[in-house]
């Protein structure tokens, strides 16, 4: 690990502990010997109130390269019962498709070295209920197809997954609209 990555990640950890948004977790993974792995963080993103994902507590991992913060962390949701989160912006591997964690010039990436871990986690929470999905390049074709062809079944699958990651049972609702032909698909 480079000195810059090490010092930046320690600073990120201090800052996150001081101003942690409610329900979020971001901390270095614990190694078998009890030490911390600053290059791999275990995180939790709560579903937003008033959305289909409300009540869910979504575990994810951030993996940092040695050239962090010049390169973004690799962010992925943990699988839920062996399956990816049912979302058009989440790849089957769990990898999250989000512009702020893609390098500039790649896939519309807008990563900048000043982007904080807290900002990434808040953006991921917002992404869960993102109202527009690019119909030309969904990250998870199955979720995209289910959403566009059978929204009732899509909602049911999402709520089933949310129930599996909700302490004490699932709650919540969702609302929204739909995209017209050739326009953006709107998640409900």
Mind sketching the topology for me?
Layout: H1 3-18, E1 25-30, E2 36-46, E3 57-63, E4 74-77, H2 117-128, H3 141-149, H4 151-164
Antiparallel strand pairs: 1-2, 2-3, 3-4
Helix pairs in contact: 3-4
Globally, the shape reads globular
Adjacency order of strands in the biggest sheet: 1-2-3-4
CATH class: Alpha Beta
> Element order, helices and strands?
HEEEEHHH
Question: Ends: how far apart?
Answer: 42 Å
CATH superfamily (homologous) name = Ubiquitin Conjugating Enzyme
Number of structurally distinct domains? 1
Instruction: Provide the structure class.
Output: alpha+beta
Strand count:
4
Weakly predicted, low-confidence segments? 170-188
Tally of helical runs: 4
Helix content: 25-40%
Beta-strand fraction estimate: 5-15%
């Amino acid at each position: 690990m480079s000195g810059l990555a090490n010092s930046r990640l320690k600073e990120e950890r201090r800052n996150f502990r001081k101003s942690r948004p409610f329900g979020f977790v971001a901390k270095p993974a614990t190694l078998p010997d009890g030490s911390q792995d600053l290059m791999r963080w275990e995180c939790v993103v709560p579903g937003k109130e008033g959305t289909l994902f409300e009540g869910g507590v979504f575990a994810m991992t951030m993996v940092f390269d040695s050239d962090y913060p010049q390169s973004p962390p690799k962010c992925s949701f943990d699988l839920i019962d062996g399956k990816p989160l049912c979302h058009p912006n989440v790849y089957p591997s769990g990898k999250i498709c989000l512009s702020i964690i893609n390098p500039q010039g790649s896939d519309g990436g807008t990563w900048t070295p000043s982007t904080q871990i807290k900002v990434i986690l808040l953006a991921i929470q917002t992404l869960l209920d993102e109202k527009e999905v690019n119909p030309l390049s969904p990250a998870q074709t199955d979720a995209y197809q289910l959403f566009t062809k059978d929204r009732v079944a899509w909602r049911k699958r999402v709520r089933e997954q949310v129930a599996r990651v909700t302490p004490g049972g699932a709650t919540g609702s969702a609302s929204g609209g739909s995209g017209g032909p050739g326009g953006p698909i709107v998640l409900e």
